[in-house]
Write a structure and sequence with these properties.
This protein is of the alpha/beta class. The chain contains 9 helices and 10 strands.
Length: 270
């Protein structure tokens, strides 16, 4: 028996977390992974994980927080990664659309990779207009030893294959439901089933038909439904496969409680 796992959601940025999680559970979601952004948000991140059942943390330093100019609090982060609810280092990577100098972003990213290797934790990768350089750094730092997930993947099939060859999975979110999506649907049809995991990135990346509104944890089923359609899977298969993948990559306990998956008017008992 499996429920969906949301491998990337910013619960600490949502209002009414308890109610939103209750609604998500009713929609078939059983666990959530919350990535970090900056050190000043780590305390709230860990409190969120401790307070709610099925919520896990991935503390780290996002590229937009890499330019603070302060010494990296690596020992504090190391301590947080030893917390029983910490499952990954995230959200880390490079971003070609922000004002932080690239050399500073790279220094922080490399530090995050090295810490992930030292603590044997997978990585949640943020890659925007920087995919090739990220892959170079991951290869150089032997990040295949820990693996992880490329968050909000929307690249080409060629890029997806390079990521998979590095031992990383693809985080599939709301972009899969967009009417104009062309590349991503083709990617999810062709890559191996074992590299696909689900995410909302809530409150961002809202799927259709709610695009333009804040994303919600309960909307993960809309992404799952589109993935099921593209792969020719049932919702049961989609939950089983993506949950097994997330549990393997993030070393999460398998979700064993049966839930109702809700997709539009479609109800399916897992």
């Amino acid at each position: 028996m499996s429920s969906y796992i949301d491998t990337h959601i910013h619960l600490d940025r949502l209002n009414g977390i308890g109610l939103q999680l209750e609604q998500a559970r009713a929609a078939g979601v059983g666990a959530w992974v919350v990535p970090g952004i900056s050190p000043d948000g780590w305390a709230e991140l860990m409190t969120t994980a401790e307070r709610h059942a099925g919520v896990y943390a991935a503390p780290g330093i996002h590229p937009q927080a890499a330019g603070s100019g302060e010494k990296l609090p690596l020992e504090e982060l190391r301590r947080l990664l030893q917390h029983p609810r910490s499952v990954a280092v995230g959200e880390v990577g490079l971003d070609g659309q922000i004002g932080v100098p690239r050399e500073i972003q790279e220094q922080v990213f490399v530090a995050m990779i090295r810490l992930a290797r030292q603590e044997n934790k997978p990585l949640l990768i943020h890659a925007r207009r920087s995919g090739e350089r990220i892959l170079q750094l991951l290869r150089r730092e032997q990040a295949d030893r820990v693996g992880g997930i490329f968050h909000a993947f929307s690249g080409s099939l060629e890029t997806a294959r390079k990521i998979i060859d590095m031992g990383f999975a693809l985080g599939i979110g709301g972009a899969l439901t967009f009417p104009g999506a062309r590349r991503l649907p083709e990617v999810v049809r062709q890559v191996p089933a074992e590299v696909l995991v689900l995410e909302t990135d809530a409150p961002d990346m809202t799927p259709e038909p709610y695009r333009g509104q804040p994303n919600r944890p309960a909307y993960l089923g809309l992404v799952a439904g589109q993935l099921a359609t593209l792969r020719g899977w049932s919702l049961t298969e989609t939950a089983r496969i993506t949950t097994a993948n997330a549990c393997r990559i993030l070393r999460l306990p398998l979700q064993a409680n049966p839930v109702n998956l809700v997709q539009g008017n479609h109800h399916e008992q897992l």
